[in-house]
Design a protein that fits this description.
Blueprint (H helix, E strand, L loop, with lengths): L2 H16 L4 E8 L5 E8 L8 E3 L1 H8 L4 H18 L10 H4 L3 E7 L4 H4 L4 E4 L2 E8 L2 H4 L3 E3 L2 H7 L3 H15 L2 E5 H9 L12 E5 L14 H9 L3 E7 L2 E6 L6 H14 L11 E5 L4 E5 L2
Antiparallel strand pairs: 1-2, 2-3, 4-6, 5-6, 6-7, 8-9, 9-11, 10-11, 10-12, 12-13
Helix pairs in contact: 1-3
Length: 295
């Protein structure tokens, strides 16, 4: 069965299972980096919010032998579980004073998100864009968030600069930076002891949640501390939207090697939606700022 036929069949089954009280439809959702996914949305007239269930992975399971009834029942179960756990009154979102304490920012690739950036407040930073989101309470919704759009600014009668100022303070309080030596991270993942002397002095910079943590470099104090400790500038490699890698800057002759390394990681190791950039950056110890390495 072709994918579009699969989507139509699932929607039809869901309409039968949910009954006339619900409107069930499929919708194309544009995610980070222009990745387009097909989601199913089920809502009653009184609902102000509904979870979106994406179908791409379910289609792969269908191709591997899962039945349509099984897939539809799983979607219904997941929907009811999420709606039972989430008693969310979106009216709270209409008041900026209620939400401003949980507004944060993250970094995304500028060129890959040009279409989305027309709809959301943002600031360009080299080849990246700073965008804003409202983070739900973790104990209720895990890591769920609402991307801030231009329509939200209009509703709140706020400017993008006012939004940035609120987020700037929230980042340091709510998303404190986390600097981890790569050897320790490898030990945590593999469970095997790594001799620091035998490894390249490399570090991972992220935030306490390790989610959208590449943005930590915009407010990091540890960049300066590490550069002073190593007595050198720092080369910054964009590993993904969730973290960046730091290592001593060995000079221009090494940059092509690291560019190829970032490109390979982006192509083979990182989900397309989580790719940040193919660019290199440098923290200048003398200037105490991050620079883009062109070439």
């Amino acid at each position: 069965m072709e994918y579009q036929n699969f989507v139509e069949a699932v929607v039809k089954l869901l309409r039968e299972k949910m009954g006339p009280e619900y409107t069930v439809r499929s919708a194309e959702v544009v995610k980070n980096n222009g990745i387009r996914l097909t989601g199913v949305i089920m809502m009653r007239d009184a609902d102000k919010v509904s979870p979106t269930m994406y179908l791409e992975e379910l289609y792969r399971e269908f191709c591997d032998g899962a039945g349509l009834e099984e897939i539809a029942d799983r979607i219904v179960g997941l929907y009811r579980e999420r709606m039972r756990d989430i008693d969310l009154d979106i009216a709270f979102f209409e008041k900026f004073e209620r939400v401003k304490g949980r507004i944060f920012y993250k970094l995304v690739n500028y060129d890959k998100n040009r279409e989305l950036l027309h709809e959301i407040p943002h600031f360009q930073w080299y080849d990246l864009a700073v965008v804003f989101y409202y983070a739900m309470e973790e104990e209720i919704l895990g890591n769920a968030s609402i991307l801030i759009r231009n329509s939200h600014l209009a509703m709140w009668e706020k400017t993008a600069e006012e939004l940035r100022q609120e987020a700037e303070g929230n980042m340091r309080r709510g998303m404190p930076e986390l600097l981890i030596p790569m050897c320790r991270l490898v030990e945590e993942v593999t469970g095997e002891k790594t001799e620091a002397a035998e490894t390249i002095p490399m570090y991972v910079l992220t935030n306490r949640l390790k989610l959208n943590g590449a943005s930590a470099m915009l407010y990091s104090e540890k960049l300066r501390e590490l550069a002073d400790e190593l007595r050198t500038d720092l080369l910054i490699l964009p590993s993904s939207v969730h973290e960046v890698l730091l290592l001593p800057d060995d000079g221009e002759e090494e940059y092509d090697f690291y560019r190829r390394m970032v490109e390979e990681v982006n192509t083979t190791q990182v989900d397309p939606e989580e790719v940040l950039s193919g660019q290199l950056y440098r923290y200048s110890r003398e200037k105490e700022k991050i620079e883009e390495i062109l070439g």
